[in-house]
Predict the 3D structure of the following.
Amino acid sequence: MTTDEIFFHGIPKIPYTPDAGLRDLLCFKHYNADEVLLGRKMEDWLRFSVCYWHSFCGTGADPFGFPTLQRAWNEGGAAMKTAKRRLHAAFEFFTKLGVKYYTFHDRDMAPEGATLEESNRNLDKITDLALQLQNKTGVKVLWVTCNLFAHPRYMNGASTNPDCHVLAYAGAQVKKGLEIAKKLGAQNFVFWGGREGFMSLHNTDVAAELRHMASFFKMAVAYKEKIGLQCQFLIEPKPKEPCKHQYDYDAMSVIGFLKHFGLDSHFKLNIEPNHTTLAGHSYEHDIVMASAFGMLGSVDSNTGSPDLGWDTDQFPMDIKNTTMVMKTVIEQGGLQPGGLNFDAKVRRESTDPEDLFIAHIGAMDAFARGLRNAVSIIEEGVISDMVKERYQSYSSGIGRRVDEGSASLEELEEFIKQNGEPKVTSGKQEKYETIFNHYL
Amino acid sequence: MTTDEIFFHGIPKIPYTPDAGLRDLLCFKHYNADEVLLGRKMEDWLRFSVCYWHSFCGTGADPFGFPTLQRAWNEGGAAMKTAKRRLHAAFEFFTKLGVKYYTFHDRDMAPEGATLEESNRNLDKITDLALQLQNKTGVKVLWVTCNLFAHPRYMNGASTNPDCHVLAYAGAQVKKGLEIAKKLGAQNFVFWGGREGFMSLHNTDVAAELRHMASFFKMAVAYKEKIGLQCQFLIEPKPKEPCKHQYDYDAMSVIGFLKHFGLDSHFKLNIEPNHTTLAGHSYEHDIVMASAFGMLGSVDSNTGSPDLGWDTDQFPMDIKNTTMVMKTVIEQGGLQPGGLNFDAKVRRESTDPEDLFIAHIGAMDAFARGLRNAVSIIEEGVISDMVKERYQSYSSGIGRRVDEGSASLEELEEFIKQNGEPKVTSGKQEKYETIFNHYL
Amino acid sequence: MTTDEIFFHGIPKIPYTPDAGLRDLLCFKHYNADEVLLGRKMEDWLRFSVCYWHSFCGTGADPFGFPTLQRAWNEGGAAMKTAKRRLHAAFEFFTKLGVKYYTFHDRDMAPEGATLEESNRNLDKITDLALQLQNKTGVKVLWVTCNLFAHPRYMNGASTNPDCHVLAYAGAQVKKGLEIAKKLGAQNFVFWGGREGFMSLHNTDVAAELRHMASFFKMAVAYKEKIGLQCQFLIEPKPKEPCKHQYDYDAMSVIGFLKHFGLDSHFKLNIEPNHTTLAGHSYEHDIVMASAFGMLGSVDSNTGSPDLGWDTDQFPMDIKNTTMVMKTVIEQGGLQPGGLNFDAKVRRESTDPEDLFIAHIGAMDAFARGLRNAVSIIEEGVISDMVKERYQSYSSGIGRRVDEGSASLEELEEFIKQNGEPKVTSGKQEKYETIFNHYL
Amino acid sequence: MTTDEIFFHGIPKIPYTPDAGLRDLLCFKHYNADEVLLGRKMEDWLRFSVCYWHSFCGTGADPFGFPTLQRAWNEGGAAMKTAKRRLHAAFEFFTKLGVKYYTFHDRDMAPEGATLEESNRNLDKITDLALQLQNKTGVKVLWVTCNLFAHPRYMNGASTNPDCHVLAYAGAQVKKGLEIAKKLGAQNFVFWGGREGFMSLHNTDVAAELRHMASFFKMAVAYKEKIGLQCQFLIEPKPKEPCKHQYDYDAMSVIGFLKHFGLDSHFKLNIEPNHTTLAGHSYEHDIVMASAFGMLGSVDSNTGSPDLGWDTDQFPMDIKNTTMVMKTVIEQGGLQPGGLNFDAKVRRESTDPEDLFIAHIGAMDAFARGLRNAVSIIEEGVISDMVKERYQSYSSGIGRRVDEGSASLEELEEFIKQNGEPKVTSGKQEKYETIFNHYL
């Protein structure tokens, strides 16, 4: 096998061709990487990233069905050889798609060995090749994460395992993950606690588990600082699945946990909207809340179906949603060093190799439309003017003192004695919705 | 009208009669107030409270139907006269039921006037009578709260209203509420933010609203301290309804908010399981989480149906649930100064006056059974021994250092290099469930 | 009061002004009633209808708050006088908005009296005026329905009440409703069974209640035929709320019920998407299923939020949803004699009279966009060609015999013995989604 | 390998030992097979069945984790050898547990071959052994089903596949399945349509798919009759997962489908409560509805968590639920030829072989308690007397004519004119709940 080997036969580098017909989907109709909006290139607002696990390791298996996806890079050979072939395929995909970032779990990239030492050696070898390919193509690591959930040893938790021996294994794995993050220049490092929670309260000491999880994060922070790793730590909330309950339930749960244990200055959040909707919130909710608390670090740009109760990790295709997300992202000045990572998988029925391209292109176009819409909303300022007017009472007098925290109940009572009943003010939700619709 | 007036004709003081037949439900079969369990009387573990709004002001109206409940104390007369009659009826009920606490909103107890001043005068008059009746009967106020959601002025929020004039009105109302709490010796004061959230993100400045809400709480804390009010402040989380999203979504959201704004030492949580299940959690979840964070202050003991998406405020009748709640309560040493407040309403179809008794009796018996079950579980120790054994690795060696927060990733790696793969340990969920069932 | 009285001061007849600025929302930017698409005028595809209850009787009260909406037509005077004033206001609204249909419950239009006879006389009088206004304006009744849920007598059910006396009352009310439908030339008659279900299985005989409900429908069919009422009977499914469970849960439940009791030829369905999503389906699901079974009669065009568990009856504003609905409507050749009824209410915070216009305009524009999109999808045929190709194996050979119902398992086995394993065919969901997006 | 081989070392035949201590769970404390209740033995009311797939083929893999369960019978060797070893293990389990029925999918029992012919030969061989073991032990097949969902060929549906070639394969497989059912004396044959639905409406012709599914069922009925197979056909509803939407959504959906296509006399329903709750209903809902329509054939006795949105297939442990189920079962005279099949899996963390026993024992005891409770409820008749009284108005006069379907709206109106307003009757839900609780 050589680096010249082609895995996606007949698929060229994806062009920006806004006027292409509908039967040809191997082109962008909206995403134009170099176009400048609000002083920044589209690609810098969007910072798209391809995920390694779904797109290169995914088999199409589901809880009721066997694998459906046959990928040239996974066919035959030893595990390490397959790992290298997969990496070449991935970089071919990244460069053809024109995406500058990728994300991976340690165990996606290199196979787990019989011992920690062997796993680490495997990871060293494959990341040597990854570094070469990064240097050759200019593609970078948006974030690395450690898979602390798939191996049977983690079935009862990693940092929250009742057996400290398992926690120790997770710690050793994270230590290596941090070293790899440094080696590859990862811009972020993600913790997703898929097994950090419980299946049953009957056998669980919640307080102890939370204490151990905090202790684990503190060790990771200490080691990151020790090795001089310059990247943002991110926690990715998810309410449930695989556990019945995960401690990192949603944005506010994680914020509460981090602040309780004094960890909040070291972490931001990686928000995945498919997790947000599983927590009973609207699509954009956790993005908005995390941003309001200054904690929005990155986004796993995917979607689920609101009528389904599990993580479907679909490609995001709803223009209203992408508009809401990009409006929040612009308002906080961008996501950097985070980005929009496609933690999304083609349906198991989407078995053609071109489907992997079509899905990413469709989602990138959906976000490009969302970005354009959000830019128009912000530039025209109709909605923001209405909102500003709505809250104007806080810009002076007693409102200002409330906003600054210097008012008292006695003052408020006195104000009412002077001014009586407030006037009725319409919230005008339908007006906002109708104006918003004009931008879609 | 005199205090001798009888509203519940033919219903005597409810006796403890464990062997009564099933057709007579006007007696307790399980709740025996003076019986001592684990060194404390049943009534002191349970600290039952009747809520004023559902049980004395409720009409049976629902979003699709008109009032169904005809209550003798609400029939005819001026508002203030009705308010007094209602109070007499309530104290007749409390004493016949043998419950020692009650809870109320300012506007349940006394009618809102045309001005703040008139409302305050109304409240002064009715609470004079309440104080008399408290002294006469020994019934106490578990908690007071201000109704900052029903009046149209609060439709866009109280402390999070875009118009500071409304926030000021809410502040004036809370000031009076705190004074009333002091006058009546309330053991707690609750904030439920039914309108503190949003209906639409389009017209909402989330960060500003959160800041104003925090400012509002700080003013309440300052005034409480100023007047020397000795009671526990409680926030009651609810995820949604009436708002599309409420900031006090669930226990962890409130904890995150309180810690972010430095308010956590002044508040605990009043957990209502019907709100917990609306947030997508299991019945006991927020009680367990709040307790684990040292924040469980009181419980609104009610239930919903897990297949319904709105607040039905049903009387709690599930023995498994009451057992789980009481187990947590005992483990944290009780709820005092909080209690178990029946924030529950008889169904609008339960139109007989006796239904009000039957519902409370059924729920009190359900909690009495839950308490007995939890006491047996804790006294026999089968489950707690199994849990202790499960986490024993944290009691010495590296586990202990993790628990105390003094370990490092390097140590953990070294431990794995020495000890290799952890052994597989069954979580034994079905065993725990089966043993738990034996106590029900 | 005269018919010249103006309730919506300063609001003119709504024009079609596609290039109006965003700050002026009192015009249509997409809905152009007379424009012809696929051989039919927009207004004939859409058949918009305004509902009387939310838009003219709604007060803004919710389960946690008092009325917020002050409407000129509801201010002061006796019930019958208010009813007339309300009707004038409604017709002013219909004609200014340019909507040709309206819908109402018997008890919205005229107040309930102390006896059935008085209620009927009230209804006679007010519908005399309605008939005059219909004749004067050309506005027609899309459908009438009887309110068999709001009065306390119906708290335990109407046609499913355990007390036949209540069922009899409901029957008398429906008899009158059918007569009114005939008098006003209603094109449809709707049954919504908000209390036809149960709050608890413990006190319910499900089989008996279903039998009584079927008997009730049969009586309505008989009386309709007897009086020569020419209109379509419609059942409106809703899964729950106000009941814990309603027998008309969703489209398929109603179809099952109707077929079981031999009633299916007399009824079609009135689908409300906000009810569909409460049943756990996607927005368009019941519209598609009802249409596939030949049972789609009319649509209550509204929406809820997928993250909320109760009926919010919001104005439909999602272009993707309206496109999906209109695609199905066009494919079945239209909804006539049904239509798109706005069973939607302005938010209780939308207190300005203009909000009532803005909400309808926004929703009508959303459906006009949906219609245009659906027409483009159908005219261009890209998607339908792909679907046709996908199912082509059923157009000949063994596939055709399966489609016609004439194949056997033996033949199928023989086919496999001859032809072996089927080939893998991608479902191409992301391709369909991406193409669909291009039409939005 | 011989039939003497022991897979569950050290675990004896499970005794009925009601007074055993809590630390020993390898005994029944409630289930006493031969005890007679209401004239029938416990084992005949309960007709327990063990499922083959979860308990003998399950690996503990979940969407986020690798297998955790190491089973002696799955270790090493060729597929056919493993299949035989697994069968011996299963029969050892059945007999030690004292369960008289089992259920299986064709592909659980024998491995799929490279061709249909090879798969059929595999099935012939293994079922020869199964027949031997059945005859030797007296254990019988409760039901057989064909796995038409796991193989990649079925990814787009089996009988609803857009490619008739796939439907043909499914038909060939069902033909063989019916022959096997006859050979083994299966008492029922189940169809679960896990892939009979859609992932996206965009690429789906719903009407065609429903037509093909009906055609498929008709072929199965024809072949069943042709070969003289005496067993009950059952359809098992599930709302979603793996599809976004499955046509057999819930009991009423299936009833509607069957009646529409004239298939209802040939099928009953196999209700799985974990599917029912995923459809948004309460646990017992579909069992009650199916029974009310005369369509309840069998029960997959398991549970999920109401706060989770996917199929967890947990062992049923809730006494309230088992009581409700058994009450319905007794009221319809039993489930025969159906039964209570444990379509449940031990948690992937429950890795000890004894956990498989403990889980079944715990669930069997939970159902034994439910049975005893239901028998007490029915024998004492307190609740049924109250219900009978509640509906008494239908036993004579106009009520009786309504019940029989011979009344008219005119009569009802006349009745109201004579009798006026009905009286208010309390539904007394809390009274029913409290009485019900006394039986738990």
